[in-house]
Amino acid sequence: MRCSSSKPTSEKVDGFTRKSVRKAQRQRKSQGSSQYRTQSAPVELSPLPQLKDTPSAEQQELFMQKLNQCCVLFDFLDSVTDLKSKEIKRATLNELVEYVSTYRGVLVESAYPDITNMICTNIFRALPPSDNPDFDPEEDEPTLEVSWPHMQLVYEFLLRFLENPDFQPSIAKRHIDQKFVLQLLELFDSEDPRERDFLKTILHRIYGKFLGLRAFIRKQINNIFLQFIYETEHFNGVAELLEILGSIINGFALPLKAEHKQFLMKVLIPLHTAKSLALFHAQLAYCVVQFLEKDPTLTEPVIRGLLKVWPKTCSQKEVMFLGEIEEILDVVEPTQFKKVQEPLFKQISKCVANAHFQVAERALYFWNNDYILSLIEENIDKILPIMFGSLYRISKEHWNPTIVALVYNVLKTLMEMNCTLFDELTSSYKAERQREKKKEQERDELWKKLDQFKLGNAPLVQNNSHSIPSVQNNNNNNNNNNSNNNESQEATSTPSDKDLAVTVEVEDSTPCAK
Amino acid sequence: SSQQHQEAVHHCASSRCGEDSHGKLYKNDTETQLYSLKMYSIIHIFYSSYHLWKYTIYDEDEVLLALAEQLGNFTMLVGGPEYVHCLLPPLESLATVEETVVRDKAVESLRKISQEHSPVDLEVHFEPLVKRLASGDWFTSRTSACGLFSVCYPRVSSTVKAEIRQHFRTLCSDDTPMVRRAAASKLGEFAKVLEPEYVKSDIISLFTALASDEQDSVRLLAVEACVSIATLLPQEDLETLVMPTLRQAAEDKSWRVRYMVADKFSELQKAVGSEITKNDLVPAFQNLLKDCEAEVRAAAANKVKEFCENLPEDNREQIIMTHILPCVKELVSDTNQHVKSALASVIMGLSTILGKDNTIEHLLPLFLAQLKDECPEVRLNIISNLDCVNEVIGIRQLSQSLLPAIVELAEDAKWRVRLAIIEYMPLLAGQLGVEFFDEKLNTLCMAWLIDHVYAIREAATCNLMKLVEKFGAEWAQNTIVPKVLGMANDPNYLHRMTTLFCINALSEACGQEITTKQMLPVVLKMSNDQVANVRFNVAKSLQKIGPVLDSNALQTEVKPVLEKLATDSDMDVKYFAQEAISALQS
Questions:
Q1: A381 touches chain B (CB under 8 A)
Q2: Using one digit for the tens of pLDDT, what is the confidence trace for B480-492?
Q3: Looking at the partner chain, which of B100, B497, B576 has a beta carbon nearest the beta carbon of A230?
Q4: Burial A3-35 (b: 16+ CB within 10 A, else e)
Q5: pLDDT value at B117 more than 60
Q6: What φ, ψ does residue A76 adopt, rounded to 5°?
Q7: Does A490 touch chain B (CB under 8 A)?
Q8: Using a CB-CB distance cutoff of 8 angstroms, which residues of chain B are in contact with residue A506?
Q9: Are the Cβ atoms of B1 and A485 closer than 8 angstroms?
Q10: pTM (2 d.p.)
Q11: How many CA atoms lie within 13 A of B137 on its CB side?
Q12: ipTM score above 0.85
């Protein structure tokens, strides 16, 4: 975003900014909080005496004074002003952290309001607009919070406060309430990973200590996720929130409440559709597996849910899905497996035949897993017919030699499981393909007719007597056939010679394009 | 398979309905009958596919989206408005799905067909649906309900109206922020259909509540509603009912809300009228221009011209000079380039409002500063709006600073910047006049022809054509044609091709004489080029300039060359030569 006056020479060459150059510029950036006119006049801090040098009778009073002093906020974007005061506040915060973590009996009831006030003033703020609207968390460096030298200590203080043996939730709940939690949750959108890490631990402590807030916290996390999935597609703290949930799910009582099941089906499964899945997939898969370990009867809806949102164009995500399926199969009960094996292996059979070798490879790795292998063996008569076509075809057609080698091993394993069935399938394979081809032709014909129907080229009467009945006929045929249903749409536009010739002319890079 | 089936349905349905709306099919009775027969089949397919979907054979979101859309066009197909209510059940279930686009489309279709319900049907069929959605368990149905209140409210009895208002109130304080957002976004629309007394008694309290919601995403939607609400209220009520909330929004702690205020500023200004603008909005606008977030400043900077234009005329100049201009001056040297370029895109418009003297004294220094800005976008935005200033003070005032700015942009490392400045060249040339152009800018225009990016060379070619249209054929003959033709001997085949592209563009503007006498010989000579790309472009050029030439030249000079090219060893050269021959024959 910054417009540098001295352009690096690399830019002169091709006119494009190289990503590495832009990144290097960005890495230097950090951002202040969007504090809106918080203070009118600058305040200068003057150092207070050390707590440890003060007689214990006066310590409480001094503690309060120090808390108040730390409510003054400084502008860290301006790195030259208030240096002295900033240093005083930093030292004071350090002292406060030490005070709440090592001294006993400091958390008297009257201290709670001042403590929470200091925390709220420092950490609760409107997060600034993202510096980089198309921030890619995998590629780009995050913008760091510029006031971190103070903020880190405040978070540290909050954590020590919550962990203090004298901490009493019954008193604190007047201050650490729903509103507090809501503001805390909003901060999870911070781009700074250090901040999110603190928030994660803190929210986890609050969830553990405040029973009355648990349902509320879960519901708000729900809302954040739903907003992320269906509205904004942007929230930086999804992974951290899922990590907290992972440990929460572990503690759910059995039988699971409807609320929790709904969370699994209506929030966790749709989360798989997010573009940025890679950033939180590990945590998400952990949560899903936790649920299934709690209640194995959820296996079927979960697998069906995953199949419904299975990625169609994104190979990276497909690899992640396959990883998650393997994690689920690792804990699946054989009776549950039987319920989903058919739709599941239809998908796996598509994956092993995927032109992207990483997808095919990941799916074929299932056959290295002994438990999965035993499940397959137990149900070989169901699974082999589903898998056979794809495996047989790619053993002959896949471009990648590693995949072909893997497929041979898989075919060998399957053959050993049921030799008779394998032979039958081999001999019927050709006839099957013939039939498929014929069906495909019929489908093409139908589409041609439909196109005429649409354009109204042919006379109305003719259309009416032919097209409609054949739509229905063909539909009946099609219902038996689930594979290859994309192909008939492909033959729409074929580039003419002319187009090709024109593109040659636009080529710019080589001295002679021909 | 069922996907294809469904697609087939949409396929038919969309084409039929499309033609229906154009009335093309109703030519005579036989056709009408055939048409109904066909519709019957379509409906039949449609319903069977709907059942397929209903019984979970297929629920791909893309398909559901198409289904939701098509159902909105099905009124005629189910037998006309009398039966339109039988479309409600499928749309109701579509309005509850998770996927936002499907749901929104279902709501859109419901809104559409609500108009086709008779008042009775609306109460018997439609309104109960709205109520069911409004009290649904999952947030999706409640969200959908928000969009349906305003379409049925005006046409139902007063008891039902009271119920609808109650439902809307409930949704405005829903537990789920998603629902509150949906309600807030429909608040303005709902207010418009309410009776004035209910706007005051119901809407204002809802508005105030939503505008102070705990979530900024809800609050900012209330700002949008503020525009509609303010237009509905009499002037004397605005101060007490709307302004406290608006003032609060303009100073909200979340930048998103302030951004929304800045973004909607012109609409707000019109809605609250000139008195409130003078007293409240001017200081609010100043604050937004000085906001701590660049996003907000940029949004406000974008509105500077519109805001000033809409100020009450009696003391417009005084307000601008004392309150707005000082802020604008600061923005010229803002740290953020987006702010500066937003300002640059509107700042020139101030000159018409402030008049010649003020422009020269106060605005000109700002324009000049922006012309020297380090960010090319800022400079471009200034240059692209030169016409506003030209009208007020004449461009001569600027030309001394303009030139270095143009030269620098013309040589910018980013080709998109170069492209942008090329596009303003004809405009600049027109305003600066032919002498200035020849002296200072001509070389630039020629240099672009040998740029290493094709898009620039292409734009440069087009630019030459526009210049010739402006300055005439004689000028072309003296200044640019010789240079263009000179490139035909360039060792780089790309430059040689540029000659051809220029000839394609210029022949018509230059006329028969220049084309035949100067351009044609060069083109013909190039037919012997060793690069095939050049040769087939010769064929294309001949086809292009053919109509400009006289028939004698066509027969004696062009035809033999094309015939020779038609026997070329290269496939593409042959193709284009043949194409040119057949095009020139007809």
A1: no
A2: 888 888 888 889 8
A3: B100
A4: beeeeeeebeeebeeeeeeeeeebeeebbbbbb
A5: yes
A6: -85, -15
A7: no
A8: 454
A9: yes
A10: 0.76
A11: 4
A12: no
